[in-house]
Amino acid sequence: MTLKSRVLLYATCWIVLISIFHASLNVNWAAVLNDYQPLAKRKITVAYIPVTCQLTCPVTDYISKVSDKGELFLPRLFQGFPEIKEALISNKVQAAFIVAPLAIALASQGVPIKVVYLGHRYGSALVVRKNGPVKTFADLRGRTIAIPSRFSDERLIVFRAMKVWGLKPGDIKMVEMAPPDVSGALAAGAIDGFVMGEPFPSQAELGGYGRVLFQARDYWPDYMSCILVVRQDLIDQRPEVVQTLVDGIARSGLWLDQGKPHREDAADFVGRFYYNQKPALLRWALTKPMDRVTYSPLAPRKADFDMVRDLMIETGVLNKKMEFSDYTDTRFSDAASQQTPWRYEPGIAAAK
Description:
The chain is built from 15 helices and 12 strands.
């Protein structure tokens, strides 16, 4: 064998070894092979974005992997709700955490989905530039703020505040922006404020360029933002899988609400392995103070959704009166009410 041939052989072997090593570390083979499994054995894919109102999704995935239950589903990270909506409609994901008004709007358009659980309560805030000209909500007249979607609870919060302060719908310009982009836009002066879920208000606070003007609960007691929806065909064909999903999410919510050590641990593994965010940012959002966000109880309540529906009609993003039973299925949350927190402590290698 010539020298050139040996070099070529060694280079080829090295490339193959590197490729195998890369694949073993960075490829989720469970997801790759999932579509080749029989339907009854496939794991469902659950969509989420990197906000605290969807934290129970990665928490459930992380803990269940080391539990006696094993991996319950395949989480898939998105950066905004429009992409999740399209993936949900096309069945690329079978369940998703989305904002409540979007779920109602999709159901009104005939998209076959049902609300089965909430993400959390509270956890959204309106943030303006620190030391900027906006001192009260009325100072936002004629200014621009970012919202995650025209079909979002955050947009409805703004309208509730406008009523209190006597502002008209056109007095504030609202632009849609993906949640991960809002802090940078505020720091650059591209917007005058934003109303988003955590941890982006915390990010602006920690960065020294943002100040919370008000928390969602100031204008909306028992505020809810993101909710968990599943496709109707999944409910019809595999209700036991939906129940397992809701049970896992419920257990994670109870686990997160058990105390600061659990939230700090979640901030660490979610920040590093799921959200690509600094754990310190999530720790701030989850613990300063502890009730900045809450994760139990999270069963859907008719009064909450009726209020969202009525605000949607009032603000022009819904043209018919949807009934609670049209877009919710409470069987799964009712059954999950008997669940207990995961038996998992930070640093251990097994959970029950």
